[in-house]
Sequence to fold (287 residues):
Amino acid sequence: MTELQIEHIPIDNLIAYARNPRKNDAVVDKICASIKEFGFRIPVIAKSDGSVVDGHLRLKAAKKLGLQLIPVILADDLSDAQIKAFRLLANQSANWADWADWDDDLLKLELEDLQALNFDLELTGFDFDEIQKLLDATDIDLDEPAKADSVDPADNIPVISKPGDLWILGEHRLYCGDSTLIDSYKIVLEDEQADITVCDPPYNVNYGASIKDTLRNKSRENKHKILNDNLGEGFESFLYDVCSNIIMNTKGAIYMCMAASELDVLQKVFKQAGGHWSTFLTDVTQQ
Fold:
């Protein structure tokens, strides 16, 4: 069996098969939303001359999103006949209802878990009516905007924010969410794009875990631990998801802080996500 290797190929080098019989223009936006949420997780299959074997829909979405490089698996080991047959097989397998059945009870549990996590259920590929039917919850409105709770300063009680909370502060909006999830941006920005983004993601340096940090903060236990700050090789994928969402939701300049040890990774994934890298800014603090 041939070992599969994934290469990142410029999108302009890929050529769609002119006789592709699958009509999919109507769902390009859904795939765009999927890529923005999860990243480009399923490579396109093509020959080394750029001709696409499978992944025409993903290619259309990538072009619409303005991506420059996408992952590709080369299929030069397949004969012309195998390529034609595989192209049909891949398209036909998208008709999942003809191939396998869902366990509705288990499916409902998965959807309920996602609903509890405040995740956009339509990003699962099911449409609104299907989700309503599966959850047996006719009062669910996926398009209903977040409702603001009023807080009386006279109550004089500690205010605790939890994931999913949206704070309306006059003309400003502050959301407690996950920057790797596209739904977070929808909630805080609604239908707008940010004029500018300034962010400080984790540095993947396991801050707070050194002996010095442990001694310094020993009375405060792990309150200074930073989530996703020790992901190892998974840090690159994490940053790619963050960069993809930020780029898609910002119409102006983007400023991102990063440790020197991971700066090359940030620059790499920022470009892969379709961003234009301009320059470096260094913060020189007083000694």
